[in-house]
Amino acid sequence: MTPGMILTLNAGSSSLKFAVYEPGQALGEVARGQVASIGTAAAELTLAAGGQKQRQAIGRADHEAALRAILAQLSPLLGGRAIGGVGHRIVHGGTEHAAPALLTPGVMAYLDTLAPLAPLHQPHNLAAVRAAMAAFPASVQVGCFDTGFHRGHPWVNDTFALPRRYYDRGVRRYGFHGLSYDHVSHELARTRPELAAGRVIIAHLGNGASMCALREGRSIGSTMGFSALDGLPMGTRCGQLDPGVVLWLMQSEGMGAAEIENLLYRESGLKGLSGLSHDMRRLEAAGTPEAAEAIDYFVFRTRREIGAMAAILGGLDALVFCGGIGENSVTIRARLCEGMDWLGLTLDGAANAAGAAEIGHGSVRVLVIPTDEERVIARAVNAALQAA
């Protein structure tokens, strides 16, 4: 019997990314794409396959309707072959899930309880799982957790200075963007094993942004914490914030939990500071004082965290950029490395402008490695299918 294909789903609040792979060691990619603007009347499906890219307006759609549109477009490419396994990016795995897991009813019930810790992602991740279960009731469903990559953190990175009973109840620094870090660390080990064995900072910079300190390929520190709010400023999220600000919002502004959640997750970050947009490309082109100040703040806080991650590692051998901003913004990469010669970070301006894979010429290597969360998910599904 011909084995079924592997489908990966990466659901956000207003998007659903997908990819299809041939099962087996090589994991040949058949197609990939996304549905953007879910929940609006302008939802659009983009599909890339065989060197061709096509776009299709699908009107107003929720995640289930988006999945139906995806499957309709994929059907001719599957050649009658079934989907043998579906892999899902799930942002929060809590204390119970460090490795990919089969999505049983019990696992799904537990993951539902974590939605308050990742309200921008977890409910939509799980909605995509349920839609896929309905579409493929006989297929293996595998969850891959963004928090899993960090579960080996030293205790001092995991804990807060709260009474210990809260740590035991799961109030700890989890870290996120683990699928991205997994892919980049694997690519580093494959292409530059001497660096992978050393001290590396990976900067995942995009609408969501964080950094991870790796020693010998293992996460020993990260900028994100209990939720996906902490650390670097992001597109619409605030990043690190004095908890006293939350108390002030409650006591002086009379704001409730839902209002504060909306403020910190959806109205802050680059969007809040600029009053214009969460999109770094738009801010770089805007030329307004507010847009410039938003970028300045992003750069300042990210440079500060590079220093903190280097301190955790006791030095630095490589800095790796990934994510939408990290992979594409020549200006942000240059500003983050400017004046960092004291750390051994010196940018090669010409290589940076040309979008080269290696863009430094100091003692610390500076690299750009495009991330591929879908392939990490597909590997987990492939392993589950082989074990079945």
Numbering strands along the chain, what is their spatial order in the largest sheet? 5-4-3-2-1-6-8-7
CATH topology of the largest domain: Nucleotidyltransferase, domain 5
- The CATH H-level homologous superfamily of the largest domain: ATPase, nucleotide binding domain
Shape: globular
Structural class: alpha/beta
CATH class of the largest domain: Alpha Beta
- Euclidean distance between termini CA atoms: 15 Å
The number of helical runs is 16
* CATH-level-2 architecture of the largest domain: 2-Layer Sandwich
Low-pLDDT runs = none
The beta-strand count equals 13
| Biggest sheet details | 8 strands, mixed
H-E string: EEEEEHEEHHEHHHHEEEHHHHHEHHHEH
Give the averaged pLDDT, no decimals.
95
Radius of gyration over all CA atoms, rounded: 21 Å
User: How many domains make up the coordinates?
Assistant: 2
> How much helicity do the residues have?
40-55%
- Binned strand content: 15-25%
Describe the structure.
40% of the residues lie in helices and 20% in strands. It is an alpha/beta fold and 388 residues long. It folds into two domains: 5-145, 2-Layer Sandwich (Nucleotidyltransferase, domain 5), CATH 3.30.420; 178-368, ATPase, nucleotide binding domain (Nucleotidyltransferase, domain 5). The strands form two sheets. Strands 5-4-3-2-1-6-8-7 form an eight-stranded mixed β-sheet, sandwiched between helices. It has a five-stranded mixed β-sheet with strand order 11-10-9-12-13, with helices on both faces. A hairpin with a 2-residue loop joins strand 10 and strand 11. Helix 1 (63-78) packs across helix 3. The protein starts with a strand and ends with a helix. The model has no long low-confidence stretch (mean pLDDT 95).
